Amino acid sequence: MEQNKRLTSAELSQLWTSYMNDSMAICVISYFLTYVEDEEVHSVLHDALALSEKHLEEITDIFNTVNQPIPQGFTDSDVDLKAPRLFSDTFSLIYLQNMARLGLMAYSLAFPLMTRKDVINYYDKCLASSAKLITKLTDIMLRRGIYSRSPYIPTTEQVEFIENQGYMHGYFAKRRPVNSVEITAIFVCLMSNIFGKVLLTGYAQVAKSKKVREYMSRGVKIATKQTEVLESILKEGSLSSPSTWDSEVTTSTVAPFSDKLMMYHTRALSVASIANYGAATSTAMRHDLIPHFFRLTTEMGKFGDDGAELMIEHNWFEEPPSAPDRKRIVRERKKE
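-> structure tokens emitted (336 positions)
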């Protein structure tokens, strides 16, 4: 039967990562639901929670067909629903928007790599439900005036072609204004940093471990600096930057989440930022922009690596399915 076929490495990795992310989302959204006051925000949070819970059930069923161990992920032990409010209702919407956007990107990457019909159907549904959630969030946030639009630029009067190689200059020659493709890439990177800064500000206040608090504070500084770099590029072209949400964090110092969950969450965001900078680098045509993106990528990569080491130190880093270590198997056979 189709369902009895082995899972490919792509299917294993994507399903495993989806399980980890959804189990984390259940903890975070459940906490948000504890304190949400706005009925419309409560409704969209409830829908997102039900979606993540359904995802875990479906991934578990798929894994059971091949006897793949179910990831530990994150459970009730990783969230304290009695902890005081840490983020506002507005930030709950912003959180959902950013995580749904990351989910949609991950699903679109996974979908064309899937071969088993049940896994294809799973990601097909994930793409549709994520698109529906993002559409709903966009409508709510636009009506409330909290949606950050990318900068407006004038529409062109006619089709034009690049006439000389000076279009790509950016160091010694006069720089041209950034084009719409470059603006979009910069905007996405900016949104990631602004969101990460607010989230890590809250995490830095509540983490139980001193090392984790220091790591989160370092992340806030990195996000602040990278935001300033990206904003300066837009400002040069008299373009607007996204709104900041620093005021959406309360003064609570009681942790609603385990340090393990907050570290995983932070590393996931750093990985997403690296992907954003990679996309920005690949589309940039102005030579001076590429070194900016390389430098910011390197800084984010070092931050992510240090976070991984901290997670390993505390035995928080759950290992994804891996290829067999053939050399180790042979070594063990020699001992027989």
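The mean pLDDT is 93.
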